[in-house]
Every structure is written in structure tokens, then in C-alpha cells.
Amino acid sequence: MSIGKQGRPRLFLDTNVFVDCLQQRERFFESARLLLIMGKVGEVELWISATQMTDLIYILSEGGRKQLMPRVMASLRGLRGFVNVCGVGADEIDAILETDWQDAEDALIHNLACQMRADAIITSNKRDFQRSSIDVFDCDEFFQRMQEMRGIPYGIARLRS
Questions:
Q1: Of 62, 113, 128, 145, which is most buried by a Cβ count within 10 Å?
Q2: CB neighbours (10 Å) of residue 106?
Q3: For the whole model, what pTM was predicted?
Q4: In sequence order, which ranges of 6-161 are alpha helices (DSSP H)?
């Protein structure tokens, strides 16, 4: 990761990071939450695609259940205060239609992250990005890298104090 000691890392987040935090998935929740907090306080620049945002609405509302929509929309409105959304147009769609990646969403995330010169993709399933030409980390690996580069201990302990 080519981030200087003072640079603010530009991170493209996989959809699963948001799901991990918003659905409080036990194994990944605390780390995903810490990453989102870092975005909210401006330590990192967080990015997601417009299509991921609509995917999140569908996933978090369990397929569009009306009774869940107010809570889902409120959660996503909260994220929009500090998570950047990049558009997806015809060129991006054409690129994923021509890709040989197994998962079109992962191909799209990779292509967008490359276009915007992201420092890394953050995911809870690194296997999906084995062919990535940019760094891919899970949240804990990202915190470890930041600690190595900046000498600041990032970790779950900060959340519990």
C-alpha cells in the first residue's frame, strides 16, 4: 500500500464490509465497525459504487420487506454522510460483461477501485479478489498495515474503551 505517514488512505469497500457492520455479523462486526468509524472521523476515505448501495438496500431489507425499509434507509442515510458513492455507467457495465472474473460484482468493484486509484480494496472475503492488481485486505490486515506504517495501534481495543 503506497500511503505515506500523513496520507489519508482511499479505500474501496466490498459490500460484505457494510453487511458485516450493519447486520452485526459476529466474526467481522467489530473490525468493520472500526473501519467505518475511521471513515466517519476522516482517517480514511471510503468508497462504494451506486450499484452496491442498491444491493445493500435489497440485502438489508431481506428482499424489500416493507417493514424493514425505514430502518435500512435510515442506516444507509447515516453512511452517506461519510461514504463516497461512485457512479456506474455503460462503460463499467460493458467492462464487466467482457470480464472472465467469476463474480461480476467483484469485477466491477476491482475495476472501479483501479479507475479511482484506490489504495486498497477492503473485503471480508479476500478469495474473491485473488486476481486484483491492487492491494486487497480484510479489515484486520488493513489495521495491521496502518499500525506498521504510522506506529499507531489500530484495533478493537479502541472500540471498547
A1: 113
A2: 23
A3: 0.89
A4: 15-22, 29-40, 50-60, 69-80, 90-97, 104-115, 139-150, 157-160
C-alpha cell at 101: 472474473
Low-confidence ranges of the chain (pLDDT < 50): 4, 157-161
Q: Given this model, what pLDDT does residue 159 score?
A: 46
Amino acid at 40: K
**Structure confidence at residue 4 (pLDDT):** 47
**Of the candidates 7, 21, 4, which has an alpha carbon nearest to the alpha carbon of residue 122?**
21
Note the pLDDT of residue 41: 93
- Select from 139, 96, 90, 141 the least CA-distant residue to 114: 96
Tell me the residue length of the chain: 161
Q: Which fold has domain 15-160?
A: Rossmann fold (3.40.50)
